Amino acid sequence: MPPSPLEDSATVDSGSSNSGMLDSPTKKKRRSSFTVKKRHGRKTLIRDLSLSQQEKACKFDLNGDGELDEAELAMMKYDKDGDGDLTALEIHAIVEDLLRDRGSIHAMRRIIIALSCFVFILSLSNLGTSIASALLVKETTADTATAEMKIVGTQDVMGTQASAETFEALEMDVDTRRARRAMVVQSLLEDPQGEHHHRFLAKGKVKCTGQKKCDGDISFDVNVMRQSDVENIKTKCDQGRIVNVKRSFPGGSKDSKGLCNSGTSITIKQKKMTEKYIKGPRKDKKKPGFQMNVRSNGVDTNFDCDGKDCYLSGDNLLNGPGGPCNLNHGSDDCKPDLVCIQSKNDVTSGTCSVAFWDEATWYVDWDNDQCVQNCEGAPNCGGLAGRWDEQFTSYTLCCDTFFSYLGGGYNKCVPDLDWHFGLGRDCTDNPNICKGEFQCKSLKDFDRSYCA
């Protein structure tokens, strides 16, 4: 039986309805396929937003799950007017940020590539250094006796960069220094022409006096070092090392003198040992002593070693004008014709300088047990001092050092001390030149008068 038009119409409507019903799942499926591609990042719950933002957020909740992922949240932020649609200007802002971020990514990528290349170059450098070190280890060996790097199978020393080493010379105590000084003077007086590392006290058979300028080359011991250190210095000097000696002076002053360099010559003279010394008990034995002269740059440094300590002397250790010196050493730290004068800013330190009349040095007149000045023709003068005389910058330092046991004060220690206070002005012909508390007085054993 053929269908009626009504049935046909129902059939069509039903088909249309079915078609609509079929279309809806298809569209929903397409929508679902769109949301599958969303980013799986941190999500924001719409209910956590403010009421004004919740309405706006619902327009960008593409899958209707009540949450906004990072992409949906970014779209909502770029929607400035809140209508749920992105205008051309808003899309333009999104593209600008995208391009800017892309440029930053490219810049960071270039920086990472450059750093990677740099690290690669450093790795190659370290690899080359490691290979070179391995080759050197196979081709070189360390000589423990001389502390040198030598080529394996030969005695050739590998060239290395020169470096200076410094040894410290110590101060001698007062008794040791004076005993060494007296020993030097005695030995030179007994044999002035003999070979002596403290130089000559006399020329020919002429005895040195204050008028004889034959003592300018005497140098007394000024410092002390352990013999083990001096032996170490000798070893390093033989190897051509640069070696310096450092000294300290009262007041904090220091100086450093060069001992060895590439052109240094060293002379060693062993001291004689007695049979008793050689065959003595093992516990009483000391190292054999020796004398060593180190000549460098035209100056000498002498070491007199007794088996335990070495005493230093030589013109290398004498300071020139302006150099530091020890007041308690007299002028032993200064070059000839210079004296150690007390510094104006520090009473404990001294400076090597030329002495003027009012700064003339004082030394001991052992025949009369007095301190006299290094001059001639005046009551305080004891004649020109010899190099062997220990000189002081003031009569007080000289008297306090040697004659503190004498009674009578400085007037007992210094002859005609009043004349020194009057600065030695000769008033024989004009007594009125004496000013203030000074008076023109004739002095004992002199036919002249002086302000005193």
From TrEMBL:
Organism: Cyclotella atomus
EF-hand domain mapped to chain residues: 66-101
Biased composition annotated in UniProt, kind: Polar residues: 11-21
This protein's record includes keyword Calcium: yes
Chain intervals for the UniProt region annotation (Disordered): 1-39
Name the record gives this protein: EF-hand domain-containing protein
Stretches with biased composition (Basic residues): 27-39
Record keywords, A-Z: Calcium
PROSITE patterns given in the database record: EF_HAND_1 (PS00018), EF_HAND_2 (PS50222)
